Amino acid sequence: MKPAVVCVGDAGINGLATVRALGRRGVPVHVVALESSAQVTSASRYCKSFTPARDLASLPDVLRGFERGALLYVDNDPMLKALAPHAPALARRFALADPLADAERLTDKSYQVEVARQAGIAVPRSWFPQDWNEVLALKGPLIAKPLGRADFKAVMASGGAELAARLRERIASPAELVVQEFIEGGDDQIYAALCYRAHRSSRSFVLSVRKLRQTVPGAGVMAVGQVVDAPQVREMTRRLVKAAGARGAFCTEFKLDARDGRYQFIEWNPRPAYFHSIGWRAGFDFAWLAYCDHTDPGRLASLPSSFPGEHYWINLHADLRNLSQRPRRPAAEWLPYARAKEWAVYASDDLEPWRKSMRQLGGWLFRRRSFGQALGRLAAPRA
């Protein structure tokens, strides 16, 4: 019998990809997620069991209820940080797919910026303001990202005064932020790489991708993306993961600067990316790479390191959020729907997560005035 897996996450798209990737190969996967999460993953036919956690502080106690010897996956930064102090105890009970012991270091944005600079990679001007006066003094187009858990991914502004005004009601202190120069250009100038660096060898498996649209144009998570051949992005990612001394999952993001043709470093995440199922059609599978690394190194050694492909990845809910921000979309931007693609949630062999997500999507559509009014007219009884 194959060793079991415990997937700790937000029970959304990221965890769903892990559960499906391993479940389809006969690996029993148990899911742990917060009670407050969307819990789409728990609806999967490949989810062996689901255990809710009351909050982040209760995660270690919940994990003690699982048998020893399973492989532990964590799919988001807040949970990585919450479990980091318990890494030694967890390592005695589980095989760890993620760098829990190094989570604080590897998720530190100031550390990331410094490593990128030392690795010879271009980095946008970056600030870590301690008070609002420091924010007000900043010039030029800016983008601010939270350093910890927050209800927003990023906020853009034309200058410090506008940025401060937009942030004051969302955070208590600017010390909770990293602020960077915003590199002009559309979402399709953002490139990313999914990387798995083996624990038991020097090999790094890297897939390069390109964002086409984000939930919020200019600052959000991927709504539509594409696997592309970007050798420089893969090379920079290998350089960063080695410089950081990281093992396991490692995802990078860059933006192509039209001013000088250089890739500007944006960030990395020491865990699978939200969109990591984009790699499946190209043969890149984070969850399976980690599983083989810990349970069957010989199989891992036989897998390729490069992954060709040009297919798309679509998160329908995220793309509709993008559409609500940009309702006048050129016809060419709909082409991914007609091409080879991997859906973020829909899968013909695992329909229940899609049904559950569509119910959630329906609720969101009715809450949006433009979509809700249109759907309301369609649903209204005819005279």
Features:
single chain; 383 residues; alpha/beta; Rossmann fold; D-amino Acid Aminotransferase, Chain A, domain 1; 4 domains; 7-stranded mixed sheet; 5-stranded parallel sheet; 14 helices; 16 strands; 32% helix; 23% strand; disordered C terminus
Globally, the shape reads: globular
How far from one another are the termini?
Answer: 61 Å
Please list the strands of the largest sheet in the order they lie side by side.
14-13-10-11-12-15-16
User: Main sheet, how many strands, which sense, barrel?
Assistant: 7 strands, mixed
Low-confidence stretches: 372-383
Q: How is the CATH topology of the largest domain named? A: D-amino Acid Aminotransferase, Chain A, domain 1
Describe this structure in words.
- The chain contains 14 helices and 16 strands.
- With 383 residues, it is α/β, with parallel strands linked by helices.
- It has helices at 13-23, 59-63, 77-83, 87-93, 103-106, 109-118, 132-136, 160-167, 231-244, 286-295, 297-301, 316-325, 352-367, 369-379, and strands at residues 5-9, 29-34, 47-53, 71-74, 95-96, 126-127, 142-146, 155-157, 177-181, 190-197, 204-214, 222-227, 248-257, 262-269, 312-314, 341-343.
- Strands 14-13-10-11-12-15-16 form a seven-stranded mixed beta sheet. Strands 3-2-1-4-5 form a five-stranded parallel beta sheet, with helices on both faces. The chain has a four-stranded antiparallel beta sheet with strand order 6-9-7-8, with helices on both faces.
